[in-house]
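Task: sequence in, structure out. Protein: Proteasome assembly chaperone (PAC2) family protein.
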Amino acid sequence: MIELESVPELVDPVLIAAFEGWNDAGEAATGAVEHLEQVWQAVPLGAIDPDDYYDFQVNRPMVSVDAEGERTVTWPTSRFSWARLPGSGRDVVLLRGIEPNMRWRAFTDEILAVAADLGVEMVVTLGALLADAPHTRPIPVTGTATDQGLARQLDLEVSRYEGPTGIVGVLQERAGRVGMPSVSLWAAVPHYVAQPPSPKATLALLRGVEDLLDLSVELGELPEDARAWEHGVDELAAEDSEVADYVRTLEEAKDTAELPEASGEAIAREFERYLRRRGPGASGPRDPGR
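Result:
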């Protein structure tokens, strides 16, 4: 079991989790949680014992040497931290780790036991998948919930996915089984630029967190990183006519599919969300590509 560090009583905490591996195209999801750890100055809580869940020939431990020459082994695992959100009436628990190699049910049950001990009221999982999405358009983020009432309340879809799943899908399903509300946000990473990092997809997931929790996240250099990433992919596509033609095909398909959404009502809803998050006291630049 996880031995947690000393932590004060948390206020209406929500758990935000992401895992390296199958659920993390372009490392966009774990990049989003890592960004939240930094900007919210998250305090470590504890880590899951890796011996029960990881194959160390697949996820190898790392050796490092400090300035005094002392060697340290860091084991692959999943780590909890917590933060008190400025200007918000709630706290957050963050979980960033690696998809386990074995005993997934026990792994997720251990996470949910910690969440229950901390008084977590909702589990939010972040994921990223490869998709036929053009890099020149806003990264799509899909939000789903396991509970129909929660889906209506947050204006999300009820998950209808059927097929292979990763640890994010298992965690969401088991959270529903124990009566803990669960939401999953997924970013669609262009499959032809799948190598990490994917700052534009990370930025899209952070905007999804803002919308979901009705708060503002300090974005730092991410908007500039996303613009530089897009510009770099533009240059690569310009050097290959077949890639450029393929990107134009994706753009046309994307733009045609979204024509019904380009209405005054949709634009008004987006602007209202923007103003709500960017009211007095909000900080951090916004990405103009939204």
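Residues 12 and 50 are 29 Å apart (CA to CA).
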